[in-house]
Amino acid sequence: MRILRKVQHKLNWSPRRYVAVFVGLLALGYLASGIYHTVKPLPEGLNYTGKLRHAQVKFLADLTYLTPEGKQQQQHVIFNEMLKMIDEAKTTIVLDMFLFNKEVGESKVQQQALTQQLTDALISKRRQYPEMDIKFITDPINSVYGGLAPEHYRQLRQAGIDVIETDLRPLRASNPTWSGFWYLCCQDAGNNPEKGWLQNPFGKDPITLRSYFNLFNFKANHRKTLVVDTAEGWKTLVTSMNPHDGSSRHSNVALVVTGNTAVDVLKTEQTVAKMSGTELPTVILGEYEAAKTEPQVQVLTEQAILDATLKLIEFAKKQDQIDLAMFYLSERQTIQALIAAQERGVKLRVLLDPNKDAFGRQKNGIPNRQVASELHQAGIPVRWCNTQGEQCHSKMIIKRSGNASELILGSANFTARNIKNYNLETDLRVVGSTQAQVFQDADQYFNTAWSNLEGKQMSVDYAQYADESKLKYALYRFMEWSGLSTF
Predict the structure, then answer these.
(1) Of all residues in the chain, what percent are helix, strand and coil, respectively (each to 5)?
(2) Which terminal residue of the chain has fewer beta carbons within 10 Å of its beta carbon, N or C?
(3) What is the pTM of this model?
């Protein structure tokens, strides 16, 4: 106290000036924290571009559509493929799934119990093969960042299955306005699932204030991958689908690949596990590839997805065809590349979710309707998925150039948060002959959705959800730039 008085006497500062200096230092610390955490080095192994490998690859799609009589139908296969791969596994199962919980929000329609079905399948496999190594990586949103203790977590762990909630702190801050403060005050604060008292934004059980503090960072391990070893070799499934009850009616896409590409996916998951304080099995294989007649497949994560997407669009020539089906489209470089492609004579079709439904809640159409307006004005054909409470959750882009095709598909929305080294994401890039079955199937999926083929009412005209509001467009641009959004 005497020292402070001596300093005050020597500097001849008033108490108000001390307060001003203190507040200034806090503001400087907040600003420095916000800036640093948007540009800090990524954990080693992220932003990964794998080797192009000839491989056996299969396209899958979950379709939700209306019949001509107006009845909603589902034609879903991805989850069954996931269960089949688990059943085929010999020694190892590694899953990384973003949403893995039983919440359905305010939805009133019947949902499939995907979370419990997957939990039961893994436990059954573990009991059948007690020595099997099973790891389940997921995002902490499923426990609302430690504010809940999910029953399916307990069941899996009791059966000897590792459930790894991703430590998101090493990731960059996509919402620095909040994260600049959070990293200073709260990043090491624990949580207690028994102390919840605030309303849960995803379900009924109350959560803590600390859960909200973490939630507002808007960070995520958004990957959706499965890797298993089978009698046919290593297999991987990379998809846009979540094994989440509230997502069970969504439309989605997936690729299943056999061979060393699966080990490349496993390598990317080792990075996430290490980031979260654990280890995954290490697999070392020779450089085996499938026959040269098979397409080539490449693993992409984080910003490598953006880089590959921009190359796909920018290298497209006049009369090439590019088709895009996307749940969220907002990233500015991608939008500008699409408009530039249109101007040089590339043929484009863009199929978007209208961003009106979120687990029983109504959304305001941002960002897709504002982006669609921009694309429409540039002359790019745009249609909307004909959603009826579910989401058009596919994330894929496909290019046809003569007899050559290229496809990028996986977990990543085309938003800054998803493909600019903020979220964790995994996509696969496939290149090869247009006649390859994987491209034929992907084309059939898109054509069916675009043109409502086979009586499946899957899309509607642009005019149905057109929104030319300049205020909403400005809001979208601010949200994309600032990170103050959930997309």
Answers:
(1) 35, 25, 40
(2) N
(3) 0.94
In a domain, 175, yes or no: no
Cβ atoms of 376 and 466 within 8 Å: the answer is: yes
Non-local (6+) Cβ contacts of 17 within 8 A are none
**Residue-wise pLDDT tens digits, 450-466:** 999 999 999 999 999 99
In a domain, 414, yes or no: yes
Q: What is the DSSP string of 447-476?
A: HHHHHTGGG-B-EEEGGGG----HHHHHHH
Yes or no: say if 210 and 353 are a contact pair by the CB < 8 Å rule.
Answer: no
The answer to the question of residue 166 being in a domain is no
Total count of domains within the chain: 2
| Euclidean distance between CA atoms 82 and 268, whole angstroms | 19
Q: Which residues pair with 162 in a beta bridge?
A: 135
Which residues form the domain of 402? 296-482
Pairing label, strands 224-230, 162-165: unpaired
Say what angle helices 176-185 and 15-39 make with each other, to 10 degrees: 110
**Using the 8-state DSSP alphabet, how is residue 141 labeled?**
G
Q: Is residue 424 one of the residues assigned to a domain? A: yes
Distance, in Å, from the CA atom of 247 to the CA atom of 99, rounded to the nearest integer, reads 9
From CA 56, how far away is CA 240, in angstroms rounded?
20
- The mean pLDDT value for 252-268 works out to 97
DSSP assignment of 246-278 equals: GGTT-BEEEEEEESHHHHHHHHHHHHHHHHTT-
Structure-token match 């709260």, residue found: 186
Query: Which amino acid does the sequence have at 384?
Result: W
Identify the DSSP state of 382: E
Query: Which pair of structure tokens corresponds to residue 86?
Result: 């688990």
Q: Quick one: pLDDT at residue 133?
A: 95
| Burial of 116 (C-beta count, 10 Å sphere; 0-12/13-18/19+) | middle
Contact 84, 228 (CB under 8 A): no
Whole-number Å distance between alpha carbons of 312 and 331:
15
| Cα gap 174→182, rounded to integer Å | 13
Give me the CATH number covering residue 403: 3.30.870.10
Query: In terms of DSSP H, where are the helices of 348-469?
Result: 368-377, 416-419, 437-451
Tell me the pLDDT tens digit for each residue of 171-230.
999 999 999 999 998 888 889 888 889 999 888 889 999 999 999 999 999 999 999 999
The pLDDT, as a whole number, for residue 465 is: 97
The 10s digit of each residue's pLDDT in 319-329 is 999 999 999 99
